[in-house]
Write a structure and sequence with these properties.
The structure holds 2 protein chains of 2 kinds.
Chain A lengths: L11 H10 L6 H19 L2 H14 L3
Chain B lengths: L22 E8 L3 H12 L4 E5 L12 E3 H9 L4 H6 L1 E3 L1 E6 L2 E7 L11 E3 L2 H15 L2 E5 L2 E8 L2 E8 L2 E12 L6 H5 L5 E15 L8 E5 L8 E6 L4 E7 L6 H4 L2 H12 L6 E14 L4 E2 L2 E3 L5 E2 L7 H20 L9 H25 L4 H14 L3 H4 L42 E2 L2 E2 H4 L4 E6 L6 H12 L5 E6 L2 H6 L7 E5 L5 E5 L4 H11 L3
Parallel strand pairs in B: 1-2, 1-11, 2-8, 5-13, 11-18, 22-23
Antiparallel strand pairs in B: 3-7, 4-7, 5-6, 9-10, 10-11, 12-15, 12-16, 13-14, 14-15, 16-19, 17-18, 20-21, 22-24, 24-25
Helix pairs in contact in B: 1-4, 1-8, 8-9, 13-15
The chains are: A mainly alpha, B alpha+beta.
Chain lengths: 65, 536
């Protein structure tokens, strides 16, 4: 299955707020550490290296890389 | 037992030195380390003489390589030189990884029974060499020339002219074939002007081997961020005779001269093992990870093997073990070429098989290096995330990389493989290009039952039928080289070879690799697979 690029969460604003909320009391370094752990947990949940690679490519593209 | 490190290797003036014309030798091996000695033993096992040249006057200084893999032990067993390694070495299979002082991951390198050789034996490199030298002497076919140094090589179309310096003058040898097993700082590589491409990493590691009486399990223990080496890593591993390897990451900025001073190393040792311990130093060495290889291993009649061909980080025990496998891959091919039983181009398959194997080893060791010594902030954050999650989340333990330990390479894509006769996905562990798996037989072990030449084996769980034996013998009679027919009906062996319910026929190479497999006994196909596996 390719990377899902259409919105498919019920409450996008709530999801955004939840991710932001997790960072509220964190320093910049702690935020980076949290993001890394989140990537590891979600990548394992997805379970497909191809889908994760596609997500990485898409994310890098948005950085102009 | 006298410490073999006290043995002096005397120089013996050979008759070659008195000849007006260069003496002619079919095979000259440069380097009497584990790789050169494995090659010499391999030739001797096939009845071929070889001449081994090494500048050493005693066994290698320092313990160096200490972990010998199951595959290496299987090879040395075939060469009649495994007994001392098993007797003198310490056997292990379990690795433990700690974060701070908490155990976060345990791995078992041989989780199933029914293999003759253990996952690993730890033995100091000089002892491995000592027993290999003893074995080589017993064959009567290995001419060991100590304190001789190759100072020049002129490759020719059908050999190479070697200039050799000895304590009593110099002489020349015309070799048909040269095996360059002269280590990471290979003289032959330099003399031939060959590039050794790759990377050297900045982080420094301190090896310290100590003699100490300790009552600890024979396991590989690895720490990330331990209390005694904050922010860095450390390793503890047992060797033979109450000797232990300690390996400390010391960082890229560490002062080399200060780090190796015994009084400073002693502080690290005591911080790790206790202030009141009683120990003596065996060896201290500071090193950086290197990740390099030759573009090609075969250069006409000169063939590079081991560290001379490829150099990698030690975490994973892939240096010495891959070098022994290089030698094992090379020797049977060169033996057939020397006997005119295979064309010279069979040796091109040495590159085709061992370069991908080296790349696999380099990939694994580079990944371990990136995990153990992160080179960027992002790399460190990701690594620390894995370690923190591993304590509570099982998935992250598989990502913890303290070294992925050496296993036999599979030669997928080798030109010597015959297309798989099994359907896709059927028993992939014994596909063509894979190393044979051992299994117990009623009268011994499968690997021991394979011939030093080619073997065709019929795996049939229902038992041995006279009809199958007759068909195997008929198939073997059609081949250009001798093929030993073998019938196997033992349950474990049949299961391992995908023949628990449906019989199967396998063709094994002299190095125990699988050249071909079928679901029937195809007389002409065995002959064709044999031709293919010998470069015809």
């Amino acid at each position: 299955m390719p990377l899902m690029k259409q919105a498919h969460v019920d409450d996008p604003d709530g999801l955004y707020a939840a991710i932001l909320e997790a960072h509220t009391d964190l320093s910049e370094n702690e935020s980076a550490a949290l993001n890394a752990r989140l990537v590891l947990l979600l990548a394992n949940h997805i379970g497909s290296a191809d889908v994760v690679r596609e997500a990485l490519t898409t994310a890098r593209k948005s950085l102009g890389k | 037992m006298t410490d073999p490190r006290q043995l002096a290797f005397a120089h013996r003036r050979s008759a070659d030195q008195d000849r007006l014309q260069p003496a002619h030798h079919p095979v000259v091996i440069v380097g009497a380390g584990p790789v050169g000695l494995a090659a010499a033993l391999g030739f001797a096992a096939r009845g071929q003489a070889s001449t081994v040249i090494d500048r050493k006057a005693s066994l290698s200084d320092g313990n160096r390589a200490i972990c010998w893999s199951k595959r290496t032990l299987e090879i040395m067993d075939r060469l009649g030189a495994a007994e001392a390694l098993l007797d003198k070495g310490v056997t292990w299979r379990t690795g433990k990884v700690f974060l701070d002082d908490r155990l976060i991951y345990t791995f078992d390198l041989l989780p199933e029974a029914g293999h003759r050789m253990p996952a690993f034996v730890n033995l100091q490199q000089f002892l491995f060499e000592h027993y290999a030298i003893e074995a080589a002497k017993r064959t009567g076919l290995v001419d060991l020339r100590w304190q001789e140094d190759v100072t020049g090589i002129e490759p020719t179309t059908d050999g190479a002219l070697l200039s050799i310096t000895t304590p009593v003058g110099s002489y020349r040898i015309l070799a048909d074939w040269v095996i360059a097993a002269d280590g990471a700082r290979s003289t032959l590589r330099r003399l031939m002007g060959l590039g050794f491409e790759g990377r050297v990493f900045a982080d420094q590691f301190l090896i310290c081997d100590i003699h100490i009486k300790m009552d600890r399990p024979v396991e590989r223990w690895f720490w990330f961020d331990p209390p005694f080496n904050r922010g860095r890593s450390a390793l503890l591993h047992r060797q033979a005779g109450d000797v232990w390897r300690l390996d400390f990451q010391v960082g890229s900025e560490a002062d080399r001269d200060a780090e190796v001073k015994p009084e400073n190393v002693a502080k690290r040792v005591r911080a790790m093992l206790g202030e009141d311990i009683d120990f003596t130093f065996e060896w201290i060495s500071l090193y950086r990870f290197q990740s390099r290889r030759l573009k090609r291993f075969r250069h006409g009649r000169v063939l590079f093997a081991g560290d001379a061909a490829h150099q990698m980080s030690p975490f994973g025990a892939r240096g010495g073990n891959s070098g022994v496998q290089d030698a094992d891959n090379l020797v049977w091919k060169l033996d057939l070429v020397l006997r005119d039983q295979a064309p010279e181009r069979l040796l091109d398959s040495y590159d085709a098989e061992r370069i991908p194997a080296a790349d696999e080893n380099l990939l694994n060791t580079t990944r371990s290096t990136d995990f153990i010594a992160p080179k960027s902030m992002a790399s460190r954050i990701l690594r620390d995330g894995v370690l923190a999650l591993a304590a509570s989340e099982p998935f992250a333990r598989r990502l913890v990389n303290s070294g992925r330990l050496s296993v036999a390479a599979t030669y997928d894509g080798s030109p010597l493989n015959t297309p798989d006769g099994f359907t896709a996905g059927d028993c992939p562990t014994t596909r063509p290009g894979a190393a044979a798996l051992d299994a117990p037989l009623s009268d011994g072990w499968l690997l021991a039952a394979l011939d030093r030449g080619f073997t065709s084996a019929w795996f049939c769980a229902e038992g041995i039928s006279a009809d199958a034996l007759a068909r195997m013998e008929a198939a073997s009679a059609r081949t250009t080289l001798p093929v030993k027919p073998l019938i196997v009906s033992d349950a474990t062996a049949c299961t391992r070879y995908g023949a628990a319910s449906t019989p199967a026929c396998f063709l094994f190479r002299p190095d125990g690799y699988i050249a071909a497999r079928w679901r029937s006994i195809p007389p002409d196909a065995i002959a064709a697979a044999l031709a293919r596996a010998t470069g015809r």
